[in-house]
Amino acid sequence: MEKAKKIWMDGKLVDWDDAKVHVLTHSLHYGSAIFEGIRCYKTPNGPAIFRLNDHIKRFFNSAKIYFMPIPYTQQEIYNAIKQTVKVNGLQECYIRPISYYGYGEVKLDSLQSKVDVAIAAFPFVSFLGKKNQEKGVRCKISSWIRITSIILPPQAKASGNYANSLLADIEARKAGYDEAIFENINGYIAEGPGENIFVVRDGKLITPAPSAGILCGIVRDSVMKIARDMGYEVTERDIPREELFIADEAFFTGTAAEITPIVEVDNRTIGNGKRGPITGKIQKKFFGIVRGEDSDHHNWLDFVR
Ligand code: PMP
User: Fold this and answer.
1) Coil, strand or helix: which one is 236?
2) Is pTM beyond 0.85 here?
3) Which of 68, 181, 253, 293 has the smallest number of Cβ neighbours within 10 A?
């Protein structure tokens, strides 16, 4: 990864190479951290963070689910994120706030543990590959089932959840695919290891509902709003595996993945095997908004300066 200059750690700006934690940090052992992934885009009016307040809200909701008292207000985290982007002089970056139980106790019980917060901002271009935003990705339905609310809460962006994601991701890549797709415990499509999923059938968009066991993605929400603004019908409902095979188009959404077309699932070609026309139109609108070239009537851009 490309380094930046400073990382915000509990109120202090620390040099990148000195931003370290003790090996007995609670969250390292028990997956008990909660975090966010946020993007800042270069616009003609300077760097703009995409839906910053919505990410901060989700950060605090994840903490609430885990009884983790973040020792800062939402406003303080908001200011700290902007300060971190600014001090690193970044025009375009990925922002990673993380709240974790730090060093002090090694026992599982976290209720007495100290909560630490760090915020990193660094250059980050692509996740599933820049060229795949046009070309699309080949996916495999995972043999791993997505976590479900009675096992681990999918709506919390908690580090422990990503052990499930990691297993699916490794399986798919070892089998020669670009990405995995999870089904939920009821056998319906849930999401990717780090992305939400949409299918397009007969000019309409369909995406799994929160009850399918997904992280309620901020790009997912943005795409639903953009699609409705463009006059497309969007439905949240169960999607069986075979409906993905016979979809006209399919795509992933996520902060890291942005909008990435899915062109193959379990060796079945989706549509004509190329980025679909509706996916292309939504992608164009999304990038127009985040890059400050299109009207931001939802007020999603939060300018750093
Ligand atoms: N699902 C999972 C499991 C994720 O990790 C992510 C990435 N945060 C998403 C969905 C997409 O969420 P967002 O659009 O807020 O990045």
Assistant:
1) strand
2) yes
3) 293
Does the domain made of 6-122 have the CATH classification 3.30.470.10? yes
3-state SS, residue 158: strand
Q: Domain 132-290's class? A: alpha beta
What is the C-alpha separation between 282 and 288, in angstroms, rounded?
A: 10
Alpha-carbon distance of 19 to 122, in angstroms, equals: 14
Task: Name the H helices within 67-203.
Answer: 74-87, 132-135, 161-174
Total length of the chain: 305
φ/ψ of 251, rounded to 5, equals -155, 155
Which of 195, 223, 290, 300 most suits a substitution to test ligand 1, by most atoms within 8 Å of the C-beta? Answer: 195
CA 255, CA 217: separation in Å to the nearest integer?
8
Secondary structure of residue 148 in the 3-state scheme: coil
Domains 6-122 and 132-290 fall in the same CATH topology: no
Q: List the domain boundaries for the chain.
A: 6-122, 132-290
Token pair for 8: 């915000």
Closest CA to 229 of 298, 276, 133: 298
**Interatomic CA distance for residues 160 and 44, integer angstroms:** 38
The pLDDT of residue 129 is 80
Q: What whole-number distance in Å separates Cα of residue 195 and Cα of residue 150? A: 21
pLDDT tens per residue, range 191-225: 999 999 999 999 999 999 999 999 999 999 999 99
Q: If you measure from the C-alpha of residue 36 to the centroid of ligand 1, how many angstroms do you get, rounded to a whole number?
A: 9
Does 218 contact ligand 1 (Cβ within 6 A)? Answer: yes
Q: Are 53 and 59 in contact (CB under 8 A)?
A: no
- One-letter identity of residue 214: I
Structure tokens at 18: 């000195």
- 202 contacts: CB under 8 Å, gap ≥ 6: 248
Q: What is the DSSP letter of 97?
A: E
